[in-house]
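Q: I have 243 residues here and want to know how they pack in 3D. Can you give me a structure?
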Amino acid sequence: MTSSDSAAPLDADAFAKLAVELHGTDGFDETVEAVVQFALQAENCTYAGVALATAAGGVEVGAVTDPLVEALYTAQITDDDGPMLTALRSGATVYIADVDAEDRWPRWRAQVAEGKIRSVLHVPMRSGPQVIGVLSLYTLHPDAFTRDDEAVAHILARHASVAVATARHEETLARAVDARKLVGQAMGILMERFGLSDDQAFALLRRYSQDTNTKLRDVAQELIDTRRLPPARVIEPRADASA
């Protein structure tokens, strides 16, 4: 990396500010976006991105600073091959000093070369022993990232991992609370309309959810929005409904 492109050293105060900003964001999407924007400042790279492991075992695009990064992520996910996936699955940092000299991922290399990217750094993000994502940095210069740059990227990835894991947990709790509220409202509608007990109303919602392979939350939302379930399912509760 040329001297003009080299990122200024970051001190403890800078990372303390980062931690405050990340934990002060209002939601999961905002947290991931803050990570990539700070990466641009911290490393002075051309592009940055975060890819995240999903609960179902897949990979999703968390945030990117340019559509090119999203295209690179999407191609790797589709092909099930590439350096980002290698970092995610192995838990090891992947540094490509010069894309022109890289031959491990031919299809990825061709796509990156089209964007004139020459150096790439993928750093795993961990929550405990689990790799939850990858922080990716890209520049237009070969041999761009020094050991100090890589060390900064690892510190940033650790901060980001904590913030992302926390944001995910809070989002999950919020969805659970929201789902309980929706189910409670739907139960109230059934109880008022059919004179059911709370156990009977919940049993009816649960049975409809199971019979139609629909999430209980979605069944409740449908009932709240339309004030009815489809006619075939609006039936008197079975004798064992309170069980």
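Q: Anything worth noting?
A: The chain has two domains: 12-172, 196-226. The CA atoms of residues 19 and 113 lie 34 Å apart.
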